[in-house]
Amino acid sequence: MDKKYFDVKPKNRHASVIAKPTADALMEFCRQEPEFEQAIIQSGESFTDCLNAITKGIGSAISDLEVYSRAVKFYFPVASVKFHMTIDLCGDNGAVDPPITMTKQDKPEPMNLSLDSLLDF
Fold first, then answer.
1. CB-based contact 30:42 (threshold 8 Å)
2. Fewest CB atoms within 10 A around its CB: which of 18, 73, 74, 89?
3. Can you say whether the dihedral through the CA atoms of 46, 48, 49, 53 is positive or negative?
4. In angstroms, rounded to a whole number, what is the distance separating the alpha carbons of residues 99 and 25?
5. What is the pLDDT of residues 68-107, one digit of tens each?
């Protein structure tokens, strides 16, 4: 996605606060899903229109998770955004990459030994 599409200076105070992080998230989503990028291009809507839709009726606060979800739905109404958050009590200790975590699928299967198979010679 061309970064120029997201280069706007919103007049709405709330929109100006969320513009950069929302643009960064949308560009990452475009990298993940080329079909999403195509939906943005074909929508004919501007990023300013998206920001205005996101901030409409938010009052004094909105979570970043809600901002990204609304942005995605603005361009692709049936899409959903899934979030994954973890806590690392040791901190990053100066590491560049996030810590590696194991999911249930990554865990090795337990080894099953049968006494019969050991004695079968």
1. no
2. 89
3. positive
4. 21
5. 999 999 999 999 999 888 888 877 666 665 555 555 555 5
